[in-house]
Amino acid sequence: MPTNQQAQVSAAIETDQIHARFRVDYPDFSLDVDLDLPGQGVTALFGHSGSGKTTLLRLIAGLMRVPNGHLSVNGRIWQDSETFLPTHQRPLGYVFQEASLFPHLNARRNLEYGMKRTANAMDPAALRDVIDLLGIAHLLDRRPHQLSGGERQRVAIARALAVQPALLLMDEPLAALDLKRKYEILPYLERLHDALEIPVLYVSHSPDEVARLADTVVLMEQGRALAVGPIAEVFSRTDLPLAQDQDASALIECTIAGHDDRDALTRVAFAGGCLWLGRLERPVGATVRARIHARDVSLALVEPASSTILNILPARIQELREIEQAQVLIRLAVGDDPATSLLARITRHSCVRLGLQVGQPVFAQVKTVALMD
Ligand SMILES: Nc1ncnc2c1ncn2[C@@H]1O[C@H](COP(=O)(O)OP(=O)(O)OP(=O)(O)O)[C@@H](O)[C@H]1O
Fold first, then answer.
1. What secondary structure does DSSP assign to 183-223, as a single string?
2. Where is the ABC transporter domain (predicted)?
3. In the chain, N or C: fewer CB atoms in 10 Å?
C-alpha cells in the first residue's frame, strides 16, 4: 500500500512536463523565456552562438538564480517564489562540452564517485546496462588521459546517468570533438535516445546533430524562444531563419517496409507515401528518420516518365515564400497526410514559369535522402 507521500509523488510524476520561466538582464543581453517542454525524449535548445542556450541550461541546473523564475520538472517544483533547490539537491545529470572527469581516478572510480554521494544511485545491473549502452566496459580500468575525447565523453555520460537523474542536461557534448570522433559518438547518443526514459535537454548549434537526436526543438534567438515544437514541424516552417539557410531540410519519420536485394535498395514507408533508399541493413519494421534538403527537391507539373530519380512523390503546395537570391521556398504536403511536409528550394524564375501557387498538385523529385539513424 503506497504511503500518502508516495501517492503524491506518483500523482505529480504523471504531469509529464517541464515548465521553465526565466528572465535575466545582463547589460548587453537579456533572456526571457516561458517554456512548456515534454517530460520525456530529447529536447534540443538550438540556436546561434550567444542566443542564450547555456544561460538557460545553467538556470535549469540551479547554477544561477534569478528572481521570479519558475521551474518544475515532471510535477516537482525546483524553483518558484518560495522554493529554490540548490544544484546539489536537483536530481540532474550534467554533461559539459569537455568531459570533466577526475584525472587521478580510472573510469570505474569516476563512475562510482558520484554514486557514493547520492541516495539514488543505480543498482549494479542497471549500471552494467548503461556501461554496455555506451560501450565503455573495456575502458573502465583506464584513466582519463588514456581515453580519446569521445571515450571520455561516453564515460562522462555514464557518470551523469549513474545517479539516476530525473533530467539530463547536455551542453554541446560533441563540440570539443573533431568530426571523426563526433561520428563515433553519435550512434551511442542515438542508442541513449531510444533507451532513456528521462527527459534530456541537449544544447547544440548544429542542425545535423539536432536532426539526428531531437524529438522537440526550442529555437533560440537573442534570448527568446522563436519556436518550440516537434522537430519535423519546426524544421519545415518557412517563416523561421532555419528554413532560409542553405541547409534547410524536412525530416520524415519512416518505417522500413521491405528490401530489394537484386537492386540493393530498401523501401521505407511514411504517413502518405514511401521512399527508395540504398540497401539498409535494418529489419523490416525498424524506424528511421529521413532528412531531405530543400535544395535536393525539384518540382514538375506532370509526373516525369523518364527520369533517373528514384523518388518522385505526388505532393500539394502548402506555402510559397520568396527568399533571398531570387529563390522561392516551397512547403509541400506529401501524399494524403497534411502533417508530412517536404521543403523545396527553387528559383523564382522556375516558380513563375510553372505558375506555381498554393493548393496546386505537383510532383516532387527527391534527389537525395539522408538517413539520420
Ligand atoms: N555573466 C554574464 N554577464 C554578462 N553577459 C553574459 C554573462 N553570461 C553570458 N552573457 C552573455 O549572454 C549571451 C548568451 O550567452 P550564452 O552562453 O547563454 O549563449 P549560447 O547560446 O550558449 O552561446 P554558445 O553557443 O556560444 O555557447 C552572450 O551574449 C553572453 O556574452
1. HHHHHHHHHHHHH--S-EEEEE--HHHHHHH-SEEEEEETT
2. 13-247
3. N
Ligand 1 pocket mutation, candidates 46, 55, 204, 218, criterion most atoms within 8 A of CB: 55
Look at residues 239, 268, 283 and tell me which one is the last residue of a structural domain.
239
Give the model's pLDDT for residue 11. Answer: 40
Q: What are 171's strand-pairing partners?
A: 203
Tens digit of pLDDT for each residue in 252-305? 999 999 999 999 999 999 987 899 999 988 899 999 999 999 999 999 999 888
pLDDT at 255: 93
Same domain, 254 and 219: no
205 lines ligand 1 (CB under 6 A): yes
| C-alpha count within 13 angstroms, C-beta hemisphere, residue 90 | 25
- The domain boundary, picked from 207, 239, 271, lies at 239
| Structural domain span for residue 201 | 4-239
pTM: 0.87
List C-alpha distances in Å: 46 to 193, 205, 226, 286.
Answer: 17, 5, 10, 28
pLDDT tens for residues 34-73? Answer: 999 999 999 999 999 999 999 999 999 999 999 999 999 9
- 343 belongs to a structural domain: yes
Nearest C-alpha neighbor of 12 from the set 77, 76, 107, 89: 76
222: CA distance to ligand 1 center in Å?
10
* Residue of minimum CA distance from atom 12 in ligand 1: 29
Pair (30, 146) in one structural domain: yes
Pocket test for ligand 1, best of 23, 48, 53 (most atoms within 8 A of CB): 53
**133 and 13 belong to one structural domain:** yes
Domain count, the chain: 2
